[in-house]
Amino acid sequence: xxxxxxxxxxxxxxxxxxxxxxxxxxxxxxxxxxxxxxxxxxxxxxxxxxxxxxxxxxxxxxxxxxxxxxxxxxxxxxxxxxxxxxxxxxxxxxxxxxxxxxxxxxxxxxxxxxxxxxxxxxxxxxxxxxxxxxxxxxxxxxxxxxxxxxxxxxxxxxxxxxxxxxxxxxxxxxxxxxxxxxxxxxxxxxxxxxxxxxxxxxxxxxxxxxxxxxxxxxx
Amino acid sequence: xxxxxxxxxxxxxxxxxxxxxxxxxxxxxxxxxxxxxxxxxxxxxxxxxxxxxxxxxxxxxxxxxxxxxxxxx
Lengths: 219, 73
Description:
The complex is a heterodimer.
Chain A: E1 3-8, H1 15-23, E2 27-32, E3 43-46, H2 66-76, E4 81-84, H3 86-93, E5 100-102, E6 110-118, E7 134-141, E8 145-147, E9 157-162, E10 175-179, E11 185-188, H4 206-218
Parallel strand pairs in A: 1-2, 1-3, 3-4, 4-11
Antiparallel strand pairs in A: 5-8, 6-7, 6-9, 9-10, 10-11
Chain B: E1 3-10, H1 17-28, E2 41-46, H2 53-61, E3 67-72
């Protein structure tokens, strides 16, 4: 059974939903930001929230926490790392993913259900999805505009895009989530962990966690 | 200890919605003839060794992908 480690920074607020989502497909435990020990987990989730108050820049301080040193080493060895919302911002600041997240074009905090199209199913996070499948998942952020310098854009491995006409923040090319070239690090602004039960409107987000569990079962 | 100021600006060419919001607000208050408004950050530090500030900027204070900086005294 896949064992997930969910990072908890001061200011994380989606860590428990991430744990509940992971527990639908495996086991999960919280990893405290000051600990370097990843406790032998199979996959890491860097959850949403406002790590270290989002001071300076989103993700900038969290990226230098003790646990992130271990997460960076884990990712470099090929371990799967999923960053959601603030977690995505942290992974970009850590240099594990290309680009950066900027304030939404409308300057407003956006909180709503969006459709995201899966454009790359050849990752440990999307293998349970069909190519072109649109997942209904909520976004809730104020700093979610994905940006990379134009010259770097062609090399970016886009995994999910906002469905046509549904870009909530002005992200370049409707990009909602990207992976590193190897595919073992994935970050996205929408929250799959908030969409794992039909009771809350959609269970589409579960496919991300099922994909991770499936990869581990095969390995 | 020497006082150092770091000015951080959104990189040129990157859409700066904060700057746009301020630029649009000013004429509404009767201030005409304002353009090219950008909103950045001021970081003030007392440092023993001023020569380290540039390294601090590159490692933590600034994200060079999206921001430019200038060290002033």
